[in-house]
Write a structure and sequence with these properties.
Elements: H1 2-16, H2 19-40, E1 49-55, H3 60-70, E2 75-79, H4 83-91, E3 97-101, H5 105-110, E4 117-121, H6 128-156, H7 160-167, H8 171-177, H9 195-224, H10 227-232, H11 238-268, H12 275-299, H13 303-320, H14 332-338, H15 342-354, H16 364-384
Parallel strand pairs: 1-2, 1-3
Antiparallel strand pairs: 3-4
Domain ABC transmembrane type-2: 156-388
Main location: membrane
GO cellular component, one term: plasma membrane
Length: 388
């Protein structure tokens, strides 16, 4: 056991003596977390489209619909005098779209017919479906209230506008005031997961994997410069030698994970969740990553070859596994492929701990899958190691 720890501590000391190690282990993941966390932003940080409104009808119904459109949380509205001016503003990219309420809008509704409005927009506007659906709902709502008010007027002989005005009292505000929104989670500290915690977990995983590829390459380096064979000539068994290397890889990964979790909590306010769950999940991730590094080292003949293959594998699988961006935005075939990379299951485990406030029993499936990957990688990697 003493010899095993000697090999382990030697490898850890060798890594910490290199200044560039700190950049790769700590500075780069924090920088990537900041960039990508800010790039996607928080869920509340939604850029609203600027929609112009041209009211050619200038009627009570058109004014009412415009009033409700201005209360929308989907886009900003600004009235302009004519569609010619609005078209010019869209061409100059000073607005994203324009709604034209054509003359005769109110009379058409009073007559029980379907009104005609036009919606033009810039090709770069991405929320056209949501905006179109909202506009259709607004027109339908105005049409129902207008027709209902007219029928009421025919029966009571009173002015239809009286009932219409009563029906149009800030229905948006009324609806919101009657609805209480509550998010149910297992922890009060984790009600709303943001993009920043997800990216923090993702890039911590990625850079731990990159560092593991680097440190597992020391076995190949030791063989190339003869250190491996000199160690084998000493009174140390193969199990002790290999155990010392694997233990050093595992502890280096834990040191990196621990520092990054503390740093992201202090810098970005990331709440990582249940401590016991974190210990279980991070340990499973590290065993899997060490196994992957050993697997790639076993297939490589030189340190350079191992580094090249390892980086390609890590970057590509991290893209599939939801490290760079949420899996919700990728096509279905990529979601299917993502089930076959360990990063996906690591991210699912962190999502359970961070977003839902789960504990060790809530991450049984992700941990089991990660250990399955680890068993596969270690089994192949260990059989490829040559001691001679």
């Amino acid at each position: 056991m003493r010899k095993l720890w000697s090999v382990c501590l030697f490898e850890i000391q060798r890594l910490v003596k290199k200044p560039q190690s700190y950049i790769l282990m700590f500075a780069m993941p924090l920088l990537f977390t900041l960039i990508f966390g800010s790039l996607f932003g928080k869920q509340e940080s939604v850029v609203k489209a600027d929609i112009l409104i041209v009211d050619e009808d200038q009627s009570e119904l058109s004014h009412s619909m415009i009033h409700h459109l201005q209360q929308s949380s989907v886009f900003h509205t600004l009235e302009v005098a004519s569609d010619t001016k609005g078209t010019l503003l869209i061409k100059e990219k000073e607005a994203d779209g324009m709604l034209v309420i054509q003359k005769g809008f109110q009379q058409t509704i009073i007559n029980g017919e379907d009104p005609t409005i036009s919606f033009v927009y810039h090709p770069e506007l991405v929320d056209t479906t949501a905006i179109s659906n909202l506009l259709n709902d607004m027109v339908t709502s105005t049409q129902i209230k207008g027709i209902g008010s007219q029928k009421w007027s025919e029966i009571t002989a009173q002015d239809w506008s009286v009932l219409f005005a009563s029906l149009s009292i800030d229905e948006n505000g009324l609806s919101e005031s009657l609805i209480e929104k509550t998010t149910i989670t297992k922890s009060e500290d984790s009600k709303n997961i943001q993009n920043m915690p997800a990216r923090a977990a993702g890039f911590t995983i990625m850079f731990v994997m990159i560092v593991m590829i680097s440190v597992t390459g020391t076995m190949l380096e030791a063989k190339q410069n003869g250190v491996w064979y000199r160690l084998m000539s000493t009174p140390i068994s193969r199990v002790q030698l290999l155990g010392g290397y694997l233990l050093s890889f595992f502890l280096i990964g834990w040191i990196q994970f621990a520092v990054l979790m503390i740093a992201t909590h202090l810098l970005f306010g990331v709440v990582w969740g249940d401590p016991l769950g974190l210990i279980v999940l991070v340990s499973a991730v590290l065993v899997c990553v060490v196994g992957l590094g050993l697997f790639i080292a076993g297939l490589s003949k030189t340190v350079e070859q191992q580094s090249s293959i390892g980086n390609i594998v890590i970057i590509s699988t991290c893209m599939l596994g939801g490290v760079y961006w949420p899996l919700e935005i990728v096509p279905d075939f990529m979601k299917t492929l993502s089930e076959f990379v360990p990063q996906t299951w690591a991210m699912k485990g962190f999502e359970e701990l961070i977003a839902r406030g789960g504990g060790p029993f809530d991450i049984v499936l992700p941990v089991a899958v990660l250990l399955l990957f680890a068993t596969l990688f270690l089994s192949i990697g260990l059989t490829r190691i040559k001691y001679e």
